[in-house]
Specification:
- The chain is mainly alpha-helical and 125 residues long.
- The protein has a domain at 85-125.
- 82% of the residues lie in helices and 3% in strands.
- The protein is built from 5 helices and 2 strands.
- The chain has a two-stranded parallel ribbon.
- The protein is rod-shaped and about 130 Å long.
């Protein structure tokens, strides 16, 4: 079990080192080169984590751009819906007008003369 040099020396002076030692692992101070090595290792791993984070951020940005492409443009959808509504209204008006054509033509034929009326009545009845 490693300790800081100061802590190790304090325990040694007080004669308490034996209380902290385990049978399989002797108590010893952490040496300066071990601290330097640990610090360098932490710096390398922190750098690798930072690099990974930047890569993930780029992937997130790319994903958000793809999602934005898939999102409907509300302005375009509004224009399309207006156009569809107007077309449906026009079709309904035309359907009504077409359904009235026989009645309208019957009036026209009545006004033109008897032979047309007879023909129309004969065709209808």
């Amino acid at each position: 079990m490693p300790l800081t040099m100061h802590r190790y020396q304090t325990l040694q002076k007080k004669g308490l080192l034996h209380q902290y030692e385990a049978d399989d692992e002797p108590l010893r101070p952490i040496l300066d080169h071990e601290l330097a090595s640990a610090i360098e290792s932490l710096q390398r791993s922190t750098s690798a984590i930072d690099k990974q984070c930047r890569g993930l951020e780029r992937q997130r940005d790319a994903l958000m751009q793809l999602k934005a492409l898939d999102k409907p443009n509300l302005e375009v959808e509004h224009v399309r819906n207006d156009r569809r509504r107007k077309e449906d209204q026009e079709k309904a008006r035309l359907d009504v007008a077409v359904s009235r054509l026989p009645t309208t033509w019957a009036h026209v034929l009545i006004c033109v003369g008897q032979p047309c009326l007879y023909y129309y009545r004969g065709a209808a009845g």
